[in-house]
Request: fold
Amino acid sequence: MVNWERMYDCHGDAHRVPELLERVEHDDAEAWDELGHRLVLERELVFPAGFAALPCLVRLASRSDRARGLAGTIMRCAAGQHGCDDLLADCADAIAELRELLDRHLRSRPADYLATYLDLLAVEEQYHWSAVMGDFSDDFYVIACPHCGAEVTIAIGGHGRYSAIRDWHLGDVDRRDLKPASPEDLSGIGGWMHATAVRDGQGFLAEGITYLFGKAECPACASVFNIADEYSSSNRPVM
Reply:
């Protein structure tokens, strides 16, 4: 049982949250709007009341798109400086249920596929990919070359799939083509990400993932590095 008197939301005292949770049971649009604003600040910072409300949201998520979306947003913020690790740990059962629900939703190939996919990445604690990965129509990642330290721009999208040095006036210069990973060589989280996209008929997303987990050449020193390994080592939160 949640002790709401010990919780707070973005306005301070969380006394409004239990009432709002009761109202959203009946799909009250105004209640949903207020609840979202109280639990999460600008889709970046989640408050203790957000984790306290998560089990209720997950329970509603099987029949409510807004509940599923808000639960996913809370999980995307779970790596932030919220100071609520104990509350997050208490949500283990709800998070496991959310994982199954999101995966089931992806199998239906919904219109909000990418958003749901990113929510699932957050549930899998792949917060760095959940925060930055797009649909590979125009994705850019900045990585420090592990050999010479040069700032390398990685582009995966309609303008090309390359590594480059970004110049303020000239744009991306000295481009080098990326080398995608072979799907059969993907393992770990990369293998899971690719296999999920393939399973759900998301061919363009799956192809982009092979480049994201492929290799790039540094234009400054010509050394070759694994894109995903270097990006993860610099951006994955320490849990």
